[in-house]
Design brief:
9 helices, Methionyl-tRNA Fmet Formyltransferase, Chain A, domain 2, 310 residues, Rossmann fold, 7-stranded mixed β-sheet, alpha/beta
Length: 310
């Protein structure tokens, strides 16, 4: 028996799940994804990774601007689905949409709920210094990531992990969960475990101001912020240059024990004082330039000891 389902997703993280579900042989009646947007320097209109993969697989693709449109919901309900698989779709589904498939809507979320409900769980876990995270498939309900857990996989966060490296590991682990979850659903052996509200935290979107490095924080916290925002949007600082300032993103850094006035450069190899300890910047990106290792960066950007960063 195969399940009749719709898939909803947008970025690469979701495309990996679509590929696994398709390979498992389930009937994907329709794929929903965000509409094409203008991106990049040329402002060319680009389809989402899920859209491109779905077309390669020969699947029907719909890109509604809003899933709250009654006509969109009615069309969705008319598909007569067993379920909808949702991964980083980018739209909140109203209750009428959640109720339309026979078995409801299932969502893949990149944390161990109830910790880090919301939009940026991967970044938040690293920024908080968590040692463990995971991926979970849950039954969707009206609350934000509050539904019962159906399947869970724990993933370790290593000291060298960035949001980018952790994203890729969680993407792979999550995608591989779908065939297991759907097979268990067909057998009637998929267990539903309600979430506890104890320990619930929220992974709100990262703001540009929040991405600015606060050198008064302890070195471990600064290093975690840098890792958690690498490669995107990138933790950043500014330093005086001529009559203005230069903005630099930091992609990698490691804590060290030296100290001094927060934000002060302590040597000629990018050791920066923090509120407690210091961080050594090891991979940086000047505004408008490509990211580079510290030695290469220093060949064109002198940051001698004593310079104050903001």
């Amino acid at each position: 028996m195969t399940l009749r389902l719709a898939f909803m997703g947008t970025p690469d993280f979701a495309a990996a799940s679509l590929a696994e579900i398709a390979a498992a042989g389930h009937e994907i009646v329709r794929v929903y994804t965000q509409p094409p947007r203008r991106r990049g320097r040329g402002r060319e209109e680009r389809k989402t990774p899920v859209h491109e993969l779905a077309e390669t697989l020969g699947l029907d693709v719909h890109t509604p601007e809003s899933f709250r449109d009654p006509a969109v919901i009615a069309d969705f309900a008319a598909l007569d689905l067993d379920l909808a698989a949702v991964v980083a779709y980018g739209q909140i589904l109203p209750q009428a949409a959640l109720d339309a498939p026979r078995l409801g809507c299932f969502n893949l979320h990149a944390s161990l709920l109830p910790r880090w409900r919301g939009a940026a769980p991967i970044q938040r876990a690293i920024m908080a210094g968590d040692d463990l995270t995971g991926v979970q498939i849950m039954q969707m309900e009206a609350g934000l990531d509050t539904g019962p857990i159906l399947l869970s996989e724990t993933v370790r966060i290593f000291p060298h992990d960035t949001a980018g490296s952790l994203h890729d590991r969680l993407m792979g682990a999550g995608a591989q969960m779908w065939p297991r979850a759907l097979a268990a659903l067909e057998r009637g052996s998929l267990e539903s475990v309600p979430q506890s509200e104890e320990g619930a935290t929220y992974a709100r979107k990262i703001t540009n101001d929040e991405a600015r490095i606060d050198w008064t924080r302890p070195a471990d916290a600064v290093a975690n912020q840098i890792r958690g925002l690498s490669p995107f949007p990138g933790a950043w600082f500014e330093w005086p240059a001529g009559k203005g300032t230069v903005r630099v993103k930091v992609h990698l850094a490691k804590p060290e024990e030296d100290g001094g006035q927060p934000g002060r450069v302590l040597d000629d190899r990018l050791l920066i004082a923090c509120g407690e300890g210091a961080v050594r910047l090891t991979r940086l990106q000047r505004e408008g330039k490509a990211a580079m290792e510290a030695d290469e960066f220093l060949r064109g950007n002198a940051l001698p000891a004593g310079v104050a960063l903001t």
